[in-house]
Write the structure tokens for this entry.
Amino acid sequence: MNSTSTHDRQPIPGVKDILAVSSGKGGVGKSTISTNLAVSLARKGLQVGLMDADIYGPNIPGMLGLEGKPQIDETGTRLLPSNAHGLKTISMGLLIDRGAPVIWRGPMLAKMINQFLFQVDWGDLDLLVLDLPPGTGDVQITLTQQAPLTGALIVTTPSNIALADVRRGVEMFRQTEVPILGLVENMSYFLCHHCQQPSPIFGEGGGERTAKSFDIPLLGKIPLDSRLRHCADAGTPFVNAAPDSPATRALEKLTDQVSRLLAPN
Amino acid sequence: MNSTSTHDRQPIPGVKDILAVSSGKGGVGKSTISTNLAVSLARKGLQVGLMDADIYGPNIPGMLGLEGKPQIDETGTRLLPSNAHGLKTISMGLLIDRGAPVIWRGPMLAKMINQFLFQVDWGDLDLLVLDLPPGTGDVQITLTQQAPLTGALIVTTPSNIALADVRRGVEMFRQTEVPILGLVENMSYFLCHHCQQPSPIFGEGGGERTAKSFDIPLLGKIPLDSRLRHCADAGTPFVNAAPDSPATRALEKLTDQVSRLLAPN
């Protein structure tokens, strides 16, 4: 496949590891997982960057409560990432007005992704987390061609429909020779606030089945908690706002797994 | 904006109306709404086609229980749509193996969308429903340039984050001069099966606020019912499987509104 050749991959100076957080399907909570994972890793003392690679639907600034345009560095050539909650962040959402559409064809997308990788002053980072858009298109192709990805995390829900999309994501990373660190099942069950009973709204057991059929580890199952959505809307990372909740405990377990996989020694 | 000029729009012979079902954000249930709306319109006696414009994540065949490749017509130049549940359907998912990734850059996407519009033997249709992928990229640009869209329906959830994505969708259709018929709020609340209490998992009042701020009608609010996901996974339209449920009643009200807006006389 010519379009996914890997010969153009070049390191980002100062950046040790690059982790792609991906999902075939949109709306599975990928940005929520990316954000909370990045914040949680930063709380462990790592230098962490978060790049919002979803150019059409850049939700990261809203989730981190970031406002205002990023500055340009003194050479006039590089963007300075915005700082919040211990992260360095860049997003299309910081460059345009909130809600303004980015009506671009693929080549423009690819150019912007290249700028986000190589024209942002990331400084020294232990880890750059990339929050990918849904699908297997221009952004994914550009990233797998140009960025030396340490590995990929695939986020899904327990639904069968979502799992078909996971399959596509797994195949894409295998074809492009990006190591898949593991699978995260989000929205695993909902705990009713009224009666405290769990409801498997989006299905059951899908994460285990998919992990097994692709022989990749299931790194975590995050319960559906409406406060997660509330925190995302309010611009506050959930792991900070609700440190004792089951969802935060699940996210912290995931964080431990990811940091072990990135630095196995 | 050159890239969204409308001078290439041409009618699809035999097709009366074309409705785009769109959402800025993925995972809001757009394909579920498209499918059930199309089935519901067909049950009212309309000739309805359903085109799955999500090339990277084609979920419609799974939701309709469609398998097998589409046939070519006797001239050898046109695809015959697949038939199920009273609909004529075309999808990338019918042309590739389930779960195979489509690792394409934008120009290939645009070409496939053009083929789905003009190289499929749709026959006489009262309505062709287009299930759009998330975002405002190549597929959306191609469709708004080439297809004479009667109107667009925008699907969202009550969350603020989803609403920022809606804003982008609304602006895109306005810039490309596609009439917006209205907004549909999906996953409005969850009815616990244990205690029957509603939980606004994804927020409250977002649909009303957005509809008001953009001066577009809110055409429906569809509750979150885990059987909707279950039916989608099983390949059975929910409106057929659970005709007496609150979600079906909400979908039927939406169907009435849409058919009134398409044929106001």
